Please model this.
Amino acid sequence: MSNEIQNLIQLKVLEPAPLTPSFISPLFIIPKSNGKCRTIFNLKALNQNLEKTLVDTATMLLPAQVGKLHLEAWLISGGMP
Model:
């Protein structure tokens, strides 16, 4: 598991974080049945401090509709400003 952590550091997925102000998220590495590892971040503390936004699922785009968008259209994922 420490090899997997070192790999994530080299890929710049993980980096040292200041103690404050920040959200420190516990990291778990779970072995998968194929021998690889699955990295899990517990984002519970972060999620408790995010603003909740209602989403109208009736107006969401289906994958088949994405190809029909005009060039001027923008899609945003994540919703974090």
